[in-house]
Amino acid sequence: MQHLDSGKPIIEAHDVAKSFNTQAGKVELFTGLSLSVEAGESLAIIGRSGAGKSTLLSLLAGLDTPTSGHVLFAGQSLDQLDDPARADIRLRHLSFIFQSFHLLPELDALDNVRLPLEIQGAADAEQQARHWLQEVGLGARMDHYPSQLSGGEQQRVAIARAFATRPSVLFADEPTGNLDDETGHQIIEQLFTLNASQGTTLILITHDLELARRCRRRLHLHAGRLEEVAE
Amino acid sequence: MSLLPRLAQRQLRTQLRTTEWRALLLATWVAIALTTLLAVLGDRLERGLLRESAALLGADLVLSSSRPITPERLGQIDLSDTRHTQVIQFPSMVGQGDELMLVSVRVLKSPYPLRGELVTEPAGQDAIPGPGEVWAEPRVMTQLGLEPGDPLEFGYAKLTLTHRLLASPDRGSGFRSFSPHILVNHADLEASGVLAEGSRADYRLLIAGNSERIRQLEQQLRPTLADHERLHALQADQPLTGNALGTALRYLKLTALIALLLSAMTIVLALRRFALGQHTRSALLLNLGLKPGQLVRLYLYQLLMAWAVTAILGFVTGYLLQAAVYQWLADLLPQSLPAAGWLRWLTGPALGLALLVLLGLPPILQLARIPVAHLLRGDPPPRDRTAILLQGCSALLLIITLLTFLQAPAAALSLLLFLLIGGALFGWLAQWALIASAKPLARRLLLGRLLLMRLRQQRQWHRLQAAVVVMLLTLLSVIWISRSDLLLQWQAQFPSDTPNYFVINIQPWEREALDQFLAEQSLETELYPMIRGRFTELNGAPVQPQLNEEQQSHNTLRRELNLSWSSERPEHNPLQAGEWWTADNSEPLISIEREMAQELGLGIGDRLGFDVGGVPVEGRISNIREVVWTSFRPNFYIIFSPGALEGAPSTWITSFHLPPERQQVSRQLLQQFPSLTLIDIDQLLSQLSQWLKRLADSSALILALSLGCGLMLLGVTLLQALEQRRFESALLQTLGVTAEQARRLDLLEFLLIGLVCGVLASISAEAVLASLHMYLLQIDPRLHPLLWFSLPPLAALLFVLIGLLIRRPLRLDQCYRLLRSG
User: Fold this and answer.
1) A7: closest CA of chain B, how far (Å)
2) B267 and B24 Cβ atoms separated by less than 8 Å
3) Residue B761: which residues within 8 A CB-CB, separation 6 or more?
4) How many percent of chain B have pLDDT more than 70?
5) Is residue A143 part of a domain?
6) ipTM
């Protein structure tokens, strides 16, 4: 997959607002929010539950559209693209890691990793999938189904799946939220090692300050505003 | 295998373990099996009756008349370039020794039949029975203990049974089409003396020719038909119309509508539940790069795979079922049936596919619209106008598909409405009764209060469950009870001396001798003349223009009436208004039946004109009589005073009661008066009840399958409520309720809803049976205690068993995990 030049903004948000209509009236989640993420950078977004971290991530990944303002991917405004075009950007440039792994239970580890490659039409899907499972240390468990794997192992399969398509940007939403500390720690090590070796832009959502500290930049989402957090 | 089918196959294999997929497969299986059964059996019946092109009619065109077809009438019909022949058919008692049997006699001339063939054993070189011969259907031979070569008495003639009649076209319509038949040669008719002027018989002119010639002839004949004539043309598309078998098949198809609807509902609910569980997967697949179109294809592949499995299973089951039902009905069917056309074998699988695709598309298309952000925030798919429109369209298409399959749109639509309205009513009643019956429990038990809370919370599901179970139990009980009980009860209401024999076709010259014979046998009876006439004029002007539209289609105006005359008022016809005529009356007076007078708006003093065989006869209404049509005595709409009708050709009619120990009298009667037609009402009713019983058994089989579908639906609805129930159960257990108490709460709920459904089903079954008694049989309704004792425990058992099957106990550690997962 193609990588975009490092040093240039790969994702930008300009004056973004998001509100919801509820039975009780309109709820403003945030307004006038701006940020810029450079290619190859690692960024942590921290904040309390309900602050709107996941919504912000949805907006940055083009999974949702802002009420006002613009989100740009590689200089292209996402809200001006139709659904298929946004899906195409996701397919070629973005990957996700979720708190609850989201593996397909009827596929073994190898097939779970192979799936996005096959959707992309990769000729050597199986070979690549094997490679990535070796990378995350699951070479011996490729034919195991999710139900036969521990939580940490499942998340490693999800990491292999995320990197397999060689994305430009990797979004990770509380990737250690469902794991114990020690396993979480191992997973984070793996994530950052791969990220460094692949030069992927990493946007991480977490409320774990320890984890956030491993990112180059940290932004705190609080009361609808983003604040840079110093070291 | 490429990606999507492979993924679909993997998904299906995993999901087959879930209850919703099992229910979906079972429902589709039953729908395919039932449709195959009905389509194949229907086609075999149609082909059987249509065998050898026009075998049903035995001709391409049939002119049927209740009067002999005179040479003059024949002269009016241009029969050039056609083949034609005449047949006479009438009911008669035939005998061997002391045994008598009611049969339908067909009197034939060569060539016969014009279409189709007579299949006999031994296979005949002769086309029709020769003079002195009779061919009889196996039922006649079995009941009378006859073998080929035995003599058979037919009126004054003694014939020899030569052939067993295995199959024959031209069976006539209505009841006579499923009465056992015998065939005799026209040459023996006169010697038998069974038919004379005015006798009741169906006279048919059979015509065959090329289709263009037949079409011309049909067009020419239609406008010239007299009131006593009917024209039957072969309708290749609906050969079963008007035939007893056709009616039976339509009835079975309507019964099947219930099963098909329940299957459809099960499929809808199973798919809905399935789709709910697929939100995350769909969002993930879209997130991994699958396009919405590909996602739709993925799920369609999965449905197609499910369909392929159920199509094979349903096809095989349908085949076995149709073979079983065919065996069941075999001795009532006119002939051995040919195999069904191969296309009909595909009807079931095709309908199954239509069901799955039509019901499956809306939720699948919704899945393709799920936002990927669902993975992060749990956003559901949009519920907008598109989604609602899609569901509406698929429901409409489904109803059209079902109605097309059932081929009786009006009846099916009425049944559909009846089921929907009845279901809504019972659902509402059940909900009300559930809450009312739980209130006293709530005051006494801790569980009772929780139960009341749950009943309020789950009321939507309870309404649906109750509607389905109550309607099904009602229909099953009504069919089960009426299959044997209804006719028996109808017969049992009559006093023990109710006539059980009718004698018709009594010629005027036989009247006195017969009167004497009956008097010698101390049989109390009265003979009435019977003259055919058509009601044409009212107060000197044509009757039709003087009536409104509804009156114009009145039964008494559409056909010839049996008129009579008498000096005495029939003892069993009390007067409602006016005076009976005196012996010295000379004016033509009329006594009219009350309902006819009421419905046509006729009153005392009105002058009615009749066309009696071309001769106008007029009379003035002098009184109105009440007639009990079920009295099994000769009853007439119109009775004239003596004198007015006496010149017209008439036969006489009477009825009498013979106790079982004096049955030999009927034998003596026929020996002395072989030309009379004696109708044994007990035999007639037993033939009818045999037919009804088989029909009821076949529909009970279909309804039992419907009950299976209903139970599946029950399972799926219980499953729908299960997640909520589990969450609630987890909460209760965390708050201190024991697992045993949680189990008892569930059982109490199942037990209560089962009992309520059982009681409601008993009430509605009694209501349906009571209305059948009152309006159809016109007898007093009675209660069926068996229903009240059996239905409530049965329904409770069903609910408890299915509930236990679906319910999974929850351990305390699971409770906490469940609550934590939200």
Assistant:
1) 27
2) yes
3) B469, B470, B473, B474, B477, B791, B795
4) 86
5) yes
6) 0.79
Q: Are residues B47 and B107 in the same domain?
A: no
Any chain A CB within 8 A of the CB of B290? yes
CA pair distance B534, B280, nearest whole angstrom: 76
Lookup result for tokens 């002999």: B68
Domain stop point among B233, B257, B283 = B233
> Which residue segment(s) compose the domain that B255 sits in?
1-55+245-407
> Is A1 a member of any domain?
no
Q: A98–B377: do the CB atoms touch at under 8 Å?
A: no
CA distance A32 to chain B (A): 22
Please, is B418 exposed, middle or buried when counting C-beta atoms within 10 Å of its C-beta (0-12, 13-18, 19+)? Answer: exposed
> pTM score, two decimals?
0.65
Q: Calculate the alpha carbon distances from B241 to A52, B44, B237, B517 in Å.
A: 69, 15, 9, 44
Which residues of chain B lie closer than 8 angstroms to A63, CB-CB? 287, 371-373, 376
The model's pLDDT over A159-182, given as tens digits with 9 standing for 90+, comes to 999 999 999 999 998 888 878 888
Closest CA to A113 of A160, A77, A44, A74: A160
The pLDDT value given to residue B507: 81
Closest alpha carbon to B172 in B58, B252, B84: B58
Choose among B11, B371, B376: nearest Cβ to A54.
B376
> In angstroms, what CA-CA distances link A20 with A24, A26, A173, B184, B409?
10, 6, 21, 89, 49
- Tokens coding A77: 């405004």
Residue B533 lies in a domain: yes
The residues that bridge with B639 in the sheet, in sequence order, are B564, B591
Q: Say whether residue A148 is in contact with chain B using an 8 A CB cutoff.
A: no
Q: Is residue A181 part of a domain?
A: yes
Q: Which residue has the higher pLDDT, B553 or A216?
A: A216
Total domains in the fold of chain A? 1
Structural domain including A142 reads 9-228
